[in-house]
Design brief:
Helix content of chain A: 55-70%
Strand content of chain A: under 5%
Number of strands of chain A: 0
Oligomer: heterodimer
Distance between the termini of chain A: 105 Å
Number of helices of chain B: 14
Number of helices of chain A: 9
Structural class of chain A: mainly alpha
Radius of gyration of chain A: 29 Å
Chain lengths: ~200, ~375
C-alpha cells in the first residue's frame, strides 16, 4: 500500500495535468484550444517547479511564457482562419515517414531520459531549505558572479536580435501620413487661427 | 477592538484538530480579505456614479435606500436575475470561463499585499514577481471572451484591449524593477518597511517618474478612461464583452473595479509607504499628535492610512474618467512604447546610480541589498 504525503499528491496531480494537457495540445483540432492547453501545461510545470523550491523560475515561467509569449501566440492563432481539412489529407502518405521520425525521437529520448540516468542514487534528492531561504536571491547571486559573462553575452545577443528584427521589418513607405507629436505640441495659436474683423453683412 | 477579534479568532483556530489548523487559518484570512474587497468593489461602482454625477452637476443614483446607498445591491440583484444569453456557435465552456479568468487574478494578487506591519496573507520572498505574474494572466479573460463570443465586435475589442494590456505591462514591469532596486527586495512587506520614516522616505520622491508611469500604465491596464478604446462605444459597441449579459457581464464589471482597487493598492504599497502615516517621523509634531487621547491613533501609522491613500487613487481613476477625452488608439500605443518605456529605462539607470552612491534619505541604509 502506498503512503502518499501531501507533497506527493500535489506532485502527481500536477504531473497528470501537465501530461494530459500536453497530450491535448497535439491532439485537439482547434488551434486556439491547443494554445490554451499549452498555457495549462505551462501552469502545471510552474506548480511542479514550486514544489522544487524554485519559486523564481516558476513565477518567471508564468510571467514570461503565460503572460507574454502565449498571449502573442494566441493573437496570431486566433486571427488565422485555419481550415483543418486539407491539412489532414496526406495523412496516409506521410504516415511511414512520420512513424520513422517518431521512433527515432523516442529512441533518442529514452537514451537520455532512461531510468539508468535518473533515480535517487544518481541524483541526490534536493535539500529542503529553511523558510528564510530565498531562491530568487540565490539565482541572482550565482547569475551575477559565476555566470556573469554568459549572462551578459546572452543579453547582448537578445538585444541584437531585437534590433535586427525591427531593422529588418521596419521600412517607411512613401506617402503614408503620420503625425509628429513634437510639431503638434509646438504649435502656437497664431499658426492656426486668424482673427478677422469684419462688419456684419446685410442679408 | 481589533486585538480582541484576533484573539477570538486564534482561540477558535486552536479548538480545531491539529491537521486542519493551518488550513482553517488561511481560509479565514482569505475570507477576511475577500469580503471587504468585494464590498468595496460594490461601493466603488456606487462611488463612481455619485462622484462623476457631482462632477457633472447631477445627483447620481439616489432612489434605493438613504441617498441611494443600497444601489449596488439593487444592481447585483438585477444582474443575478437576468438571463445569461449564450450566443449560438460560441464556445460555451470558454464563454462562461472567460469572466472568471479575468476576475480570479484580480483577487489572487491580494495574497501578497501587506495591509499593516505583519498583516499579510502570504509573506513570500518573490512577492513583486508574483504580482506581476498573476496580473498578467488577466489578459486571457479578455482574449478568450473576445474569441469565444464568435462576434466581430467582441473580437476587435479583445484584440485592442489585450494589445494595450500587453504593451503597458512592459512599462509597468520596468517601473516595478525600479522599486525593487530601491528597496533591495522583492518582498512586498520589506518594500514598505524600506520606506519607513517620514514622507520624505517614501519611494515616490526618488522614483517620481516611475511612480507616474506606473499609475498611468495602471489606468491603461485596467482599460479605464482615457484609455478605454477597448470599449469605445462609438466604434465597437462595448468591446470584448458585447455578447455578455446578466451575471457573466457583472463578473467582468467586478473584475474591472477589483483591478482598479488592486492598482491603487499596489501604487500605495510601492510608492507611497503603504500603511505608514504621512504625519509620522516629524519629531515633536507627530509625538504630540499621536499622544492625543482617543483619536491619536488616527494620526499614527496603520491600516487606515493604506485605505485613505488607496481611496485617493481610486478618486483619481474616477476623476480621470470624468475629465479626460479618450485617447486615439495609435496615440495610446505611442505613449506606451515610445514615451513610457524610454522614461523607465533612463530612470532605472538613475536609480541604480543613486543606490550605489547611497544618496540620503532613501538609499543610505548601509547596504540595504
Amino acid at each position: 500500500m502506498f503512503e502518499l504525503t501531501g507533497q506527493q499528491i500535489v506532485f502527481y496531480a500536477f504531473s497528470f495535468m501537465l501530461i494530459a494537457s500536453a497530450l491535448m495540445v497535439i491532439t485537439v483540432r482547434n488551434p486556439v484550444r491547443a494554445a490554451l492547453f499549452l498555457v495549462l501545461a505551462f501552469f502545471s510545470a510552474a506548480a511542479i517547479w514550486l514544489l522544487l523550491e524554485a519559486e523564481f523560475l516558476a513565477i518567471t515561467l508564468v510571467l514570461v511564457y503565460v503572460g507574454a509569449v502565449m498571449v502573442l501566440f494566441l493573437f496570431v492563432v486566433m486571427m488565422l482562419d485555419i481550415n483543418t481539412a486539407p491539412l489532414q489529407e496526406g495523412f496516409t502518405r506521410y504516415l511511414p515517414l512520420g512513424l520513422a521520425v517518431a521512433v527515432i525521437i523516442v529512441f533518442e529520448l529514452s537514451l537520455v531520459l532512461g531510468p539508468e540516468n535518473f533515480g535517487l542514487d544518481k541524483i541526490a534528492a534536493p535539500i529542503a531549505h529553511a523558510a528564510d531561504y530565498s531562491n530568487t536571491k540565490a539565482i541572482g547571486l550565482i547569475l551575477y558572479t559565476d555566470y556573469v559573462y554568459p549572462f551578459e553575452i546572452a543579453s547582448v545577443i537578445l538585444l541584437v536580435a531585437i534590433i535586427a528584427a525591427i531593422a529588418l521589418t521596419f521600412r517607411r513607405r512613401k506617402g503614408t501620413k503620420s503625425q509628429k507629436p513634437e510639431e503638434q505640441v509646438a504649435v502656437r495659436r497664431e499658426d492656426r487661427v486668424r482673427i478677422v474683423k469684419m462688419k456684419a453683412e446685410k442679408r | 477592538m481589533f486585538e480582541m477579534i484576533v484573539t477570538i479568532w486564534q482561540d477558535a483556530i486552536a479548538l480545531l484538530p491539529g491537521g486542519i489548523q493551518p488550513f482553517a487559518e488561511i481560509i479565514t484570512k482569505i475570507i477576511a480579505i475577500m469580503i471587504p474587497l468585494i464590498l468595496s468593489v460594490a461601493y466603488l461602482t456606487f462611488a463612481e456614479r455619485k462622484i462623476i454625477g457631482y462632477m457633472q452637476v447631477r445627483i447620481g443614483p439616489n432612489r434605493v435606500g438613504p441617498r441611494g446607498l443600497f444601489q449596488p445591491f439593487a444592481d447585483v440583484f438585477k444582474l443575478v436575475f437576468k438571463e445569461i444569453i449564450i450566443p449560438s456557435n460560441s464556445n460555451k465552456f470558454l464563454f462562461i470561463g472567460a469572466p472568471l479568468i479575468t476576475f480570479a487574478p484580480a483577487m489572487a494578487a491580494w495574497a501578497v499585499i501587506p495591509f499593516d506591519e505583519g498583516m499579510i496573507l502570504s509573506n513570500i520572498d518573490a512577492g513583486l514577481l508574483y504580482v506581476l505574474a498573476v496580473t498578467s494572466i488577466g489578459v486571457y479573460g479578455v482574449i478568450i471572451a473576445g474569441w469565444a463570443s464568435n462576434s466581430k465586435y467582441a473580437f476587435l475589442g479583445a484584440l485592442r484591449s489585450s494589445a494595450q494590456i500587453v504593451s503597458y505591462e512592459i512599462a509597468m514591469g520596468f517601473a516595478l524593477v525600479g522599486v525593487l532596486i530601491a528597496a533591495g527586495s522583492l518582498n512586498m512587506h520589506d518594500i514598505v518597511i524600506a520606506q519607513q520614516g517620514s514622507v520624505a522616505n517614501w519611494f515616490f520622491l526618488p522614483l517620481f517618474p516611475l511612480f507616474m508611469v506606473y499609475f498611468i500604465s495602471g489606468v491603461a491596464e485596467t482599460n479605464r478612461a482615457p484609455f478605454d478604446v477597448a470599449e469605445g462605444e462609438s466604434e465597437i459597441v462595448a468591446g470584448f464583452h458585447v455578447e455578455y449579459s446578466g451575471m457573466a457581464f457583472a463578473v467582468f464589471f467586478l473584475a474591472e473595479y477589483a483591478n482598479m482597487i488592486l492598482i491603487a493598492g499596489l501604487t500605495v504599497v510601492m510608492f507611497l509607504g503603504g500603511w505608514y502615516s504621512p504625519l509620522a517621523g516629524l519629531g515633536v509634531v507627530s509625538e504630540t499628535l499621536f499622544a492625543i487621547p482617543y483619536i491619536g491613533w488616527m494620526f499614527d501609522s496603520g491600516f487606515h492610512w493604506l485605505v485613505f491613500k488607496m481611496a485617493f487613487f481610486l478618486l483619481l481613476f474616477l476623476w480621470f474618467r470624468a475629465t479626460f477625452p479618450r485617447y486615439r488608439y495609435d496615440q495610446i500605443m505611442r505613449l506606451g512604447w515610445k514615451v513610457f518605456i524610454p522614461i523607465t529605462i533612463v530612470w532605472l539607470l538613475v536609480v541604480g546610480v543613486a543606490v550605489l552612491a547611497e544618496i540620503p534619505p532613501w538609499f543610505d541604509k548601509g547596504g540595504a541589498a
